[in-house]
Amino acid sequence: MKPAAIVILNQASLPVARKIATTLPGAQIYGLAKRTESIDITFEDFGETVRSLYTENRPIIGLCAAGILIRTLATSLSNKQQEPPVLAVAEDGSAVVPLLGGLSGVNVLARSIAQDLNVPAAVTTSGDLRFGTALLAPPEGYQLRNPEDAKGFIADLLAGAAVKRIGEADWLRDSQLPWADSATHEIVVVTPDIPIDPNPRRLIYETTATPGQLTGQLTGQLTVVGLGPGPAKWLAPETRQALAAATDWVGYSTYLRFAAPYRTSQTLHESDNREELDRARHALDLAAEGRSVVVISGGDPGIFAMASAVLEALELGGNPAWDSIDLEILPGISAVQAAAARLGAPIGHDFCVISLSNILKPWEIIADRLVAAAQADFVIALYNPASHTRREQLIEAQRLLLQYRSPETLVALARDIGRPKETIEITSLYALDPAKVDMRTLVLVGSSQTRQFSQGDRPWLYTPRSYVKM
Predict the structure, then answer these.
(1) Is the domain of 257 the same as that of 153?
(2) What does residue 391 show for φ and ψ, rounded to 5 degrees?
(3) Which of 14, 131, 419, 444 suits 269 as a labelling partner, its CA being 20 to 30 A distant?
């Protein structure tokens, strides 16, 4: 897709235009010369500019009334197959309306912009809404061979007709289409070398001859994201955009549930929390088929989360088509960052993070690292400290740390940070009660330099930047 053109008619629209532009690589803001300033490109004639952008196949985002765009482009509308995305956005960002470009991803773009503006996208495409997929705009790696039959075919499905699938494609299998083996309507998936007769009751999708590629382009994208510790305000804008633009979400069921407020029509792929490599392989396979896939973790995806599992699966291999995937890992706010901010600045000096879970590594390694961190006087953040079935590790960790740290060492228990039931307790290493700790708790063990004081009724915890040996 070419870089988007964001067209505004007055200065009041500029803040929203800039917000949209930050999420669309290469986007340019076009402004009416006599009413705007500090704009990328100015113009004198609105109609001439918009029609020129349309002819250039540039996505057009007009911060104006939908009617203005429709009347301006009316004489240019001749070939639906070649329309670029055209959207109308309210100048205050309160509405996002896709107008043209159903075959070129306008609904995906609308959902992405709407998610960034924190408003719903006014998608009215019946097939998209009901079936959870756009039959007119298949993902990269597939192309519709007979688009002239699609309108009537989709109308039949909306009227109640069922459909039979011949050939395999995850994006079809995971949709909400009314599948039935006895149906008279067919969706057929074939390679380009296989001839098949068109039919008004048949949609034909051809795949690429080379797995994972279509006309030399990458078939799909895999983005690994973290939701942060809790509230929406801590979700990175780049992550919000990736969630909105995706066709598929892959993740542990708990994290998919946390992400639910950002979901529109994305297909969900849930798995158990212990199936990380299988989950990563499934995500890679989906992306290799041309999907835009997001793998969802909590916190930061690179800290005890799915980024390493995806990279491990990719290195081990298993599918040559994975080599063409556009892989991106986005940063998120980790639990230790959120807890530290609530407490003050306990990780203001050297610190480390250690997971107490012995599911993926033996306890002996964990114990060795605890001892080394205690001896080195690091502030220590303990992830995965305890669960319903795993209580002994925290008790043993406390015992080991007390061999090298003062019993009065400050310890913070930060639970559900950023969520409605957030709690914080500051105690000492000796007084730490493991019974108060579960998997939603981050245990932060201070160094010999970590301090506590009160500002009125507010306690603060911090570790000074200057280090004085006590």
Answers:
(1) no
(2) -110, -25
(3) 419
Judge if 319 and 349 occupy the same domain. no
- Domain assignment present for residue 458? The answer is yes
- Do 32 and 68 form a contact (C-beta atoms < 8 A)? no
Across residues 456-469, what is the average pLDDT?
A: 87
In a domain, 136, yes or no: no
Q: Within a 13 Å sphere around the CA of 407, how many CA atoms are in the beta-carbon half?
A: 2
Taking each helix axis from N to C end, the angle separating 66-73 and 46-55, rounded to the nearest 10 degrees, works out to 70
Residue 331 neighbours by CB under 8 Å, 6+ apart: 226, 236, 300, 301, 302
The pLDDT tens digits of the residues spanning 318-362 come to: 888 898 898 999 999 999 999 999 999 999 999 999 999 988 899
345 & 456 share domain: yes
- Final residue of a domain: which of 185, 207, 229? 207
Q: Is 351 in the same domain as 458?
A: yes
315 within a domain of the structure (yes/no)? yes
Could you say which of 94, 124, 154 is where a domain stops? 124
Looking at residue 30, its amino acid is Y
Under DSSP, the state recorded for 375 is: H
pLDDT tens figures, 40-55: 999 999 999 999 999 9
**One domain for residues 239 and 350:** no
Residues 349 and 424 in one domain: yes
> Do 102 and 79 meet the contact criterion of CB atoms below 8 Å apart?
no
Q: Is the separation of the CB atoms in 9 and 64 below 8 Å?
A: yes
| Farthest CA pair distance, the chain | 84
Question: Could you tell me the two tokens for 105?
Answer: 């991803």
297 vs 254: CA distance, rounded Å: 9
- Please name the residue that has the structure tokens 């807890």: 339
Q: Is residue 323 part of a domain?
A: yes
Side-chain half-sphere CA neighbours of 389 within 13 A: 3
Higher local confidence (pLDDT), 81 or 223: 223
Same domain, 12 and 86: yes
The 3-state DSSP class for residue 382 equals: strand
Q: Are the C-beta atoms of 299 and 340 separated by less than 8 Å?
A: no
Measured from the Cβ of residue 39, the count of other Cβ atoms closer than 10 Å reads 19
Which residues, other chains included, contact 466 with Cβ-Cβ below 8 Å and sequence gap of 6+?
Answer: none
Nearest Cα residue to 96 out of 244, 300, 307, 197? 244
In CATH, what number is assigned to the domain containing residue 224? 3.40.1010.10
Answer whether 0.70 is exceeded by the pTM.
no
Sign of CA dihedral 249, 254, 255, 259: positive
Residue 87 is part of which domain span?
A: 5-124
- Which tokens go with 268? 């969900």
Say how many domains are in the chain.
4
Q: Could you give the CA distance from residue 301 to residue 228 in angstroms, rounded to a whole number?
A: 9
395 touches 430 (CB < 8 A):
no
